[in-house]
Amino acid sequence: MQRVVRVITYNIHHSAGVDGKVCLKRIAAVLQQHNPDAVALQEVDRHLPRSYLRHQARALARHLNMHFVFAPTLSWLGFCQYGMAILSRYPILEHHYYSLPGGQEPRGLQSASLNHETGTFFLLNTHLGLNYRERDKQAEAIRKIISSLDGPVVLAGDMNTEQLAFPELPVAPHDPLPTFPSYRPQFALDRIFASRHWQITKAFTPVACASDHLPLLVELILAPQNTR
Question: Which fold has domain 5-226?
Answer without folding.
Answer: Deoxyribonuclease I; Chain A (3.60.10)
